[in-house]
């Protein structure tokens, strides 16, 4: 199966602090994985490197075969459209409508721009698509509401609709439920993974909840100290290996160590 996202030897430092120490993994088209690791292990930095929101010193990131490290200007913008991000913070504009927030997802479309993404000037096709995206997340009835009037779970659903409006092929969800209560968080995860499955999108989702990671992620990529130390099908990983990602001593299980040595 063709690769949607390839990361090889990715290294990144901030001054004297090395954050990424040669990260390697590949996601096939339509594949889903959960990314785990303690705070400070380099997860968020790595995610921001994928579309060059953060630069990196060495290594390669390929999106559908295109090396992003060699791109700039319009060519980089084209590749960035392929990656749709959902963040812990919803990053909505609170005092404008839900519908307008979703329309902003079309800013990067060919022929787009700020004017054509405003509800008063947006082409009918874009307006129809924005409503379709809201229907996908169950919030079509909230289209005229201001975003700040919605609950946290609803705002994250709007953020997912805005991401869908972008028409990405790869979804990067960086702790999308960290700001939500357990019930709302589960509902958002169920929605996100259902949509990416139905749309056959590739998804990489960072979580801290091991039970949810094992439930929703068919594959788990575990990072520690700037490296990938676990990369396997979820049902082949013992819970002690996942817990090891959060231990200060850096220990992982013998099973994990032997598997990576074999690979």
UniProtKB/TrEMBL annotation:
Q: Which Gene3D superfamilies match?
A: P-loop containing nucleotide triphosphate hydrolases
Cellular compartments per GO CC: membrane
GO MF annotations in UniProt: ABC-type phosphonate transporter activity; ATP binding; ATP hydrolysis activity
The identity of this protein, by name, is Phosphonate ABC transporter ATP-binding protein
Query: Which species does the entry assign this protein to?
Result: Paracoccus subflavus
Name any one Pfam family assigned in the record: ABC_tran
Q: Which UniProt keywords apply?
A: ATP-binding, Cell membrane, Membrane, Nucleotide-binding, Translocase, Transport
Extract the InterPro entries matched here.
AAA+_ATPase (IPR003593), ABC_transporter-like_ATP-bd (IPR003439), ABC_transporter-like_CS (IPR017871), ABC_transpr_PhnC (IPR012693), MetN_ABC_transporter-like (IPR050086), P-loop_NTPase (IPR027417)
Annotated ABC transporter domain residues: 5-250
Q: Which CDD domains match?
A: ABC_PhnC_transporter
Q: Which SMART domains match?
A: AAA
């Amino acid at each position: 199966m063709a690769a949607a996202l390839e990361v090889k030897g990715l290294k990144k430092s901030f001054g004297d602090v090395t954050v990424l120490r040669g990260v390697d993994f590949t996601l096939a088209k339509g594949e889903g994985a959960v990314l785990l690791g303690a705070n400070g292990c380099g997860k968020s930095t790595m995610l921001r490197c994928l579309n060059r929101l953060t630069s990196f010193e060495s290594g390669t990131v390929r999106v559908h075969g295109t090396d992003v490290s060699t791109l700039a200007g319009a060519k980089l913008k084209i590749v960035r459209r392929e990656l749709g991000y959902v963040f812990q913070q919803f990053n909505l504009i609170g005092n404008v409508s839900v519908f307008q927030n979703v329309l902003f997802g079309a800013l990067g479309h060919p022929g787009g721009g700020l004017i054509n993404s405003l509800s008063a000037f947006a082409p009918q096709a874009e307006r129809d698509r924005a409503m379709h995206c809201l229907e996908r997340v169950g919030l079509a009835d909230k289209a005229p509401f201001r975003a700040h009037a919605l609950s946290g779970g609803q705002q994250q659903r709007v953020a997912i609709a805005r991401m869908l409006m972008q028409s990405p092929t790869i979804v990067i969800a960086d702790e999308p439920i960290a700001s939500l209560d357990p019930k709302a968080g589960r509902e958002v995860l169920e929605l996100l993974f259902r949509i990416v499955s139905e749309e056959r999108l590739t998804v990489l989702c960072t979580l801290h909840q091991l039970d949810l990671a094992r439930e929703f992620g068919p594959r788990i990529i575990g990072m520690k100290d700037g490296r990938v130390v676990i990369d396997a099908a979820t049902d082949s990983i013992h819970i002690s290996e996942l817990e090891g990602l959060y231990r200060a001593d850096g220990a992982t299980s013998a099973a994990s160590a032997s598997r990576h040595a074999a690979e």
